[in-house]
Records
---
Amino acid sequence: MKLVIVWIFLLTLVISVSSQVFHWGPCPTPMVQPNFDLNRFLGKWYEIEKLPAAYEKGTCIETNLSLRPDKTISVVHIRTRKGKVRIAEGTATVQNQREPAKLGISFSYFTPYSPYWILSTDYDSVVLLYSCTEFLRIFHVDYAWILSRSRSLPPETIYHAKEVFSKDNIDVSRMVPTDQHGSPYDEPLARPYWPYSTSDFWNYIEYFRSIGAHNHINDMARTFFSHQNLGDTLGYEVAEQQE
Ligand SMILES: *[C@@H]1O[C@H](CO)[C@@H](O)[C@H](O)[C@H]1NC(C)=O
């Protein structure tokens, strides 16, 4: 009878984590970044690829780490989902001073710290993060992330990152790229409205010149030329069929 209950318990766990990556056996024990320097690791990171996590759906996912006065680390997690920007703040701490690259992270008072290990980073471009939780050494659920200081990484960097994970027996075959397009923070400029004809344009130029309004000429010229098929849209976003 007891065995049945244990199996039902395990089965429930497996089902509840089935959207995650789950494997039999205990967690792998990867190497972490030697001489990890927390201060250089702080700041903004963009998510490039990850093992799918149910609580992390969305696009334009970014994380900003900063040190609080009490020496804990604030982890601000920003993502866009269904057109809305969602922000969550968590706390990370170094759990054992002798292993500074093994952080723990929690997003509420009630949840225990989950592992948040820095496997490898150059601090300036890329970081490989790993988190694994095991259940009675029977199976484990893991998360892995490739983050970057910019919204994209060259394919060979991603390839190399996956090799590093694989070398440590971390299965990254189910890693998925994170869409970093269309961030509400760096929206492209919409083309300004230009309802006039070309001869109107030259007439306005003459008029603005006569009154010495050179700023107006400049603005108007940018607007006008962004509507011409010159192959250069002067930094304005152009609908595809117009290119
Ligand atoms: C990250 O968070 C810190 C502390 O809240 C803030 O001062 C900083 O401007 C943030 N950085 C970015 C790039 O958003």
Note: Residues 2-16 form the longest helix (15 residues).
---
Amino acid sequence: MWFAMDIKKTRRVSKSVGIALLTGMFGVQLAHAGKWLPLNKDGLHDRRSPGLELLQSPQDALGSLPTDTAGNKVNWSRAMDERLIKPRGALAGDKKVQILDLNIVMTDTAGHPNVLFPHKVHTQWLDCANCHESLFKSKTGATPVTMGSILRGEHCGVCHGAVAFPLTECRRCHLLPQEG
Ligand code: HEC
Ligand code: HEC
Ligand code: HEC
């Protein structure tokens, strides 16, 4: 058990112990991922366009990064952890990235496994102001988040399904067993 027990609150906070274990479990699923179609076969680009050969092929650009089964088939968190990519803190200047290691457990899941929201991974990519106080209040349970709001592109759905792994990956968010 790696979160503080408080049965009155529906959401709880904890440190990241156990995350490595959980992501390790997904390693199995990642083994058979990561084949990028050439641009002239991906059904998205006009294969007769003479401009096509000016574009880098996805295999060239992404092939050396850890693979994933969904989205653009790169596991970006692992790419960052393994220091294969080192994004800058800001477009200009050398702003220091502020990492927060704080997990939020969200338990309004109608019998589905509980949701673990890890601040650590998110703050490696994002600034606090990307989420607080507009998408989420910085107080556990203060923002009414539902699967419906997420599917409508609000809350987690502002990014997941758009720029971060898609909503079809239920278990990546719903990964904590319900307490018995
Ligand atoms: C990707 C979005 C996102 C980013 C970026 C983010 N947070 Fe959060 N934060 C959340 C969510 C989601 C919750 C839980 C909200 C809820 O339960 O309604 C939360 C909750 C919190 C809480 C409340 C914890 C408690 O005990 O009640 C604090 C404090 C907080 N965040 C601080 C920060 C700080 C400081 C940063 C930047 C270093 C940050 N957050 C970055 C999404 C984010
Ligand atoms: C990006 C993270 C994320 C993904 C992916 C995700 N969920 Fe959720 N889900 C949530 C959050 C956050 C809540 C709200 C939990 C809370 O408020 O305590 C939620 C709530 C729910 C609920 C509770 C009822 C409701 O409407 O809120 C159900 C059922 C549910 N999700 C099912 C699913 C299924 C099925 C999938 C895959 C098709 C899925 N979720 C994918 C984050 C996610
Ligand atoms: C402002 C954008 C943004 C919002 C809002 C956001 N995420 Fe994410 N999330 C990301 C990015 C970027 C990543 C890393 C790239 C990826 O895994 O696709 C990520 C990664 C994750 C991961 C993977 C962690 C790992 O170890 O690989 C989980 C779980 C997750 N998000 C859950 C949530 C949940 C639950 C919510 C809503 C409560 C949420 N996210 C809201 C952008 C966001």
Note: The longest strand covers residues 114-118.
---
Amino acid sequence: MKRIIALSGQKIEYSVEFKDIRHIIIKIDRALILKISAPKGVGIFQIEQFIYQKSKWIVSKLKMQEAQGGSKSELNFVSGEKVSLLGEIYPLEVISSKKKSAYLQNKTLYICVDDVENGELKKGVFKKFLYDQALFVYPKVLNNAFTVASRYGIEMPSLKIRFMKSRWGSCLPMKKIVTLSTHLIHFEDSLIEYVVMHELAHLRHANHSKDYYQFLTTLMPDWHERRERLNKLAGGIDLQE
Ligand SMILES: [Zn+2]
């Protein structure tokens, strides 16, 4: 039995299972759905009272899990799972269709494949979707950052987008190439912009010297806060740039 409850202004889905137990138990599964186990005979009113009592814990736990889901692509590609895109959370809906595609509609991310049980197939469609999103978003973010960097004599680099697991981005100053990871697409554009600016600053200083960081601070005074937020959302992983 699936129901919706409003907690701190958020609509949260939960399911209830009645079992031979003595107390109500709340769990949050990997798809960020509340799973309630309740003793037989307990009414919905009582269950919801219990959820309200635990709302602080639930909301903070959901936030944490959402943030972690943002960077890790350990999705099972089942309907109901949550995916983070540009900092927004979307539920996933897997649909059987002859034509492979993935798209956003009505705040839902649809993945359409002919074999809905085929995990590799769904992953492939999803990866292409992420890449296409990155292809659409990153040049705009680069242009924005470049309007600042160009004032300091930085030349426009060429942009590459790759599936990189261990780095958010990289820069080849001699060749003037900036490479960004597709995984960045999960985060708010201000955080993508931070990584872009980090790479643009390397066009002046190839290393991570004191001069480099001074220059980065000139380009983006609040880079430190952005980096902290990115690391936090990525589950505490401090990836190289
Ligand atoms: Zn760097």
Note: Residues 71-125 form one domain.
